[in-house]
């Protein structure tokens, strides 16, 4: 089942599944992740010209081994 791009989920393991990235505040190049940038913009950081940032969400305070991940490749959400 495909997920919508930009969806954030909590996973009960310490790695990101295929098509997901950890929400650890990392900076990504816009050129490589144009569709995700079009959804997030610079809401979580980055300069908006060459890069943007993912949200930084820490699930380890809940329980060790949990992590939030964002879907970076999936269904682009429709605005209709």
Please count the helical segments: 1
Q: How many extended strands?
A: 5
Q: Give the overall silhouette.
A: globular
Q: What's the domain count?
A: 1
Distance between the termini: 22 Å
SS strand fraction: 15-25%
What can you see in these coordinates?
It is a single chain. The protein has one helix and five strands, in the order βββαββ. It is mostly beta strands. The strands form two sheets. It has a three-stranded antiparallel β-sheet with strand order 1-5-2, with no helix packed on it. Strands 3-4 form a two-stranded antiparallel ribbon. The longest helix has 7 residues. The two termini are 22 Å apart.
